[in-house]
Amino acid sequence: MNEPHQGEFRITSEHDIVMARKVVRDAATALGFGITDVTRIVTAASELTRNIYHYAKSGVMHWRSLNQDASVGLELTFEDSGPGIADLEKAMEMGFSTGKGLGMGLPGAKRLMDELVIESTVGKGTTVVVRKWLKK
Amino acid sequence: MALESISVIKLRDLLLVTVPPDPDDETISALQERVLQAMALYEARGLVLDISTVQTLDSFFARTVAETVQMVALMGGRTVLAGMCASVAVTATQLGLTVGNALTALDVDRALDLLNAAPSGARRV
Amino acid sequence: MKKATNTPSKSPATVLGSEESFRLLVEGLKDYAIIMLDPTGHVASWNAGAARFKGYRAEEIIGKHFSCFYPTEAVQQGLPEQELKAAAKEGGFENEGWRVRKDGKRFWANVIISALRDKDGSLRGFSKVTRDLTERKQAEEQIQQQSKEIMELSTPVMQVWQGVVVAPLIGSLDSQRTQQFMERLLNRIVETNSPVALVDIMGVPTVDTQTAQHLIETISAVRLLGAQVVLTGVRPAIAQTLVHLGIDLTGIMTRSSLSAGLQVALDILNLKVVRKDDSR
User: Fold this and answer.
1) Which domain holds residue C205?
2) Is residue C275 situated within a structural domain?
3) Is residue C22 classed as helix, strand or coil in its secondary structure?
4) With 0-12 CB in 10 A as exposed, 13-18 as middle and 19+ as buried, what is A39?
5) Is the predicted pLDDT of residue A2 greater than 50, yes or no?
6) Residue B21 sits in a domain of what CATH number?
7) ipTM strictly over 0.90?
8) Residues of chain B found within 8 Å of residue A47, distances taken between Cβ atoms
9) From the candidates C180, C225, C250, which should be mutated to test the interface with B, based on the most B CB atoms within 10 A?
10) Residue A1 domain flag
11) Which domain holds residue A54?
């Protein structure tokens, strides 16, 4: 498998949401994730990319493969310089949304992935890192 | 991808729309537009949304479909979602997504049977 | 406990000289790879065990950097350097992981790296003791694979008629098992194009809130596909528990026995069973 182990994708237009899905689908499939896990990862990426486009207008998604002894995983990082999230706890509640009825992005992604780490500063931006490990 | 890529087929008094494999947000919104136009034009009593090739069903898609179902209902029609694939069903359930009052069917044939059956034979989600 | 009171003519130390005997011990040990690294991680000494596990002779490996024993992904992630740093900081470092032999083959190693310091505390180098645990790892993986197979065997999904699949659940349902069951059930429903799935829980000993949630999730997923679940084998005790727990199963069809569930399935499919010699 000579696939690259990491990459970057800039998000600047609405159409980039579906392009990001394709990038993530290819990466997850290349790593050996089964179809259901690929679907989970792509759906989580779709939610988080859409968050970037709608709240921050632009941002970047990094992806890289993870290797920890016997385990293989995929890590996606979503960064933007948008308005940031004031109340992180509330944002992680299911169904919460502040505009465009866009709730569910973060809690949804958290349910679909194995790990989710989020850092956000109001006025500066947000970074969300999600990881999923291949189950043996 | 936009308005032109969504085709709505009229089958007697029913509408059939085949959703492409990975539609972008614009296409999904366009789908809603085209469906409502067709509902008005043909006074259809039912809509079959063939999602058998759809690979990702995120919250935006689900929300738009749920809205469309409601709008179609207001215009006098019932909607059936046909052919969802297993991995999408698992993910959608894990996300807690619903598709409003849409009926569901394993494939387009069964969806058409459903809409042509007597009302008492219909099953709601 | 008797105290040995022999007066040997020569003490062991004088036979060989303690440092010499220790060196012979370490060098001759075939079951453990014991090597020394200089402070920068280059191989400074080699023993029989190391030659056996890693495939290099002493002459060809001394002076090389120890990262050559690690798989490429580990090197890319900087793992060897991290391990040395950890050993230097904490005094010692132990972990398990894949290592690579000279011929490229991998083996599963248990490694202990210790920092060697002289009296004034300055780092002289590292000792590295490696054990080959590949066999144990293979046994572990085989057990995992077998557990997986047992799980699959214990939650089969069988097509009993055109349009009907039956899934008898035996045993308790934890999150992982339910997830796997749900995927298998959904895939079978799609494969066999079956609008009805009978999920029999007669063999599920107890139902707590979590199990009930899992079942409800599974039933929702089946609905999204366009099929429906009939929950069968609901025993009196389970029925009581579900009501007491306040679990809402409205909209979900349930029956006390699998055969009653089968009758429901036939009704849904508009089928009926007729005796062969029935002249009517």
Assistant:
1) 155-268
2) no
3) helix
4) buried
5) no
6) 3.30.750.24
7) no
8) 58-59
9) C225
10) no
11) 6-133
Nearest-Å Rg of the Cα atoms of chain A is 14
Lowest mean pLDDT among B66-70, C6-10, C59-63: C6-10
Which own/partner pairs from C168-172 qualify as long-range (CB within 8 Å, at least 24 positions apart)?
C168/C200, C168/C202, C168/C203, C168/C233, C168/C258, C169/C199, C169/C200, C169/C201, C169/C203, C169/C204, C170/C203, C170/C204, C171/C203, C171/C204, C171/C205, C172/C204, C172/C205, C172/C206, C172/C211
Same domain, residue pair C248 and C196: yes
- Indicate whether C162 and C130 sit together in one domain: no
Chosen for mutation from B5, B27, B28, B59 (greatest number of chain A CBs closer than 10 Å) is: B59
**Total of domains in chain C:** 2
Domain boundary residue among C72, C102, C137?
A: C137
B19 at the A interface (CB within 8 A)?
no
> Chain B within 8 Å of A94 (Cβ-Cβ)?
yes
Residues of chain C found within 8 Å of residue A74, distances taken between Cβ atoms: none
Residue of chain A with shortest Cα separation from B24: A18
List the single range of A9-18, B77-86, C73-82, C111-120 with lowest mean pLDDT. Answer: C73-82
Q: What is the C-alpha separation between B47 and B82, in angstroms, rounded?
A: 10
d(CA B84, CA B19): 11
pLDDT at residue number B69: 95
